[in-house]
């Protein structure tokens, strides 16, 4: 009886934890919430990190990566990589978006081609490499 009661209490707690509150926002126990309002980026520019410094990044028509410190003067990124908010390296290769959490030792395709920038904006590419942006709440 005690085991059943304990199990039922745990199930109820977990169920309540993952339900959305009346505000429409998820429970604080759920990790990062991404707004579902994606807007196509007019400039096609996103923020990323490299060597703990924030840079602006963009792709050219061939999906080659460029960076800038001021948004005016651009240079090609020779290794083609940038880092997201959590320090995972991202790169484009074989027509896909890849990331690595171990400094490039292993790579996996980025789910939904979506990542979080250093200032809380979410970015994603569509199949044509157009950039979309959403703010986290």
From TrEMBL:
Highest rank taxon of the organism: Bacteria
Keyword Signal in annotation: yes
Signal peptide feature range: 1-21
Keyword match Signal: yes
Annotated keywords: Signal
Protein's name according to its UniProt entry: WWE domain-containing protein
